[in-house]
Amino acid sequence: MADISPARIWVMRAAFPGLALVIMFFHLLPLDTLPPRWAPPDLLLALVMAWAVRRPDYVPTLSIALTFLMADLLFQRPPGLMAFLVVLACSFLKSQVQPHRETAFVGEWITVAVAVTAVTLLNRLILAVLGVVQPSLGLILIQMVATLLIYPLVAVTSQSLLGVRKLSPAEAEALGSR
Predict the structure, then answer these.
(1) What are the boundaries of each domain within the chain?
(2) Hey, CA dihedral for 30, 31, 36, 41, is it positive or negative?
(3) pTM for this predicted structure
(4) 6-27+39-176 CATH
(5) N or C: which end of the chain has fewer CB within 10 A?
């Protein structure tokens, strides 16, 4: 049973930026000096999508925006573009959450796949229109597919280790009545 106490919600709201910082730290470590032949999955995107689908109250929009703006700056991406697209995608995912109906994991995964694909393609399209130099399309598609393939592992890890579970209908009703 998920805990819906205000203290737990605030702890998890603070845990999300903390986990994001850990992911960014390991992403920035210079472990290999050769250019990569493949793009690793975007763990930060998978994490925020998993949390937005399972517990939207743990990832407020401002937290998502600030976290991804910081990631844009650290990863030397155009500032604010990925943050804007991820906020839109998470808002879409949060609107799809139906607290009174349990959905199967495959349905959740398909919804997340649509959101990740939209973020990837819109990012690529906007950068192309603005004339920004981009990595090859193959690398972008590899990263998108890798992110979609790692999503179940991120969701299971979030659920088992961090307790980010979907709310039961009774808990959703109690949370909504506050």
Answers:
(1) 6-27+39-176
(2) negative
(3) 0.89
(4) 1.10.1760
(5) C
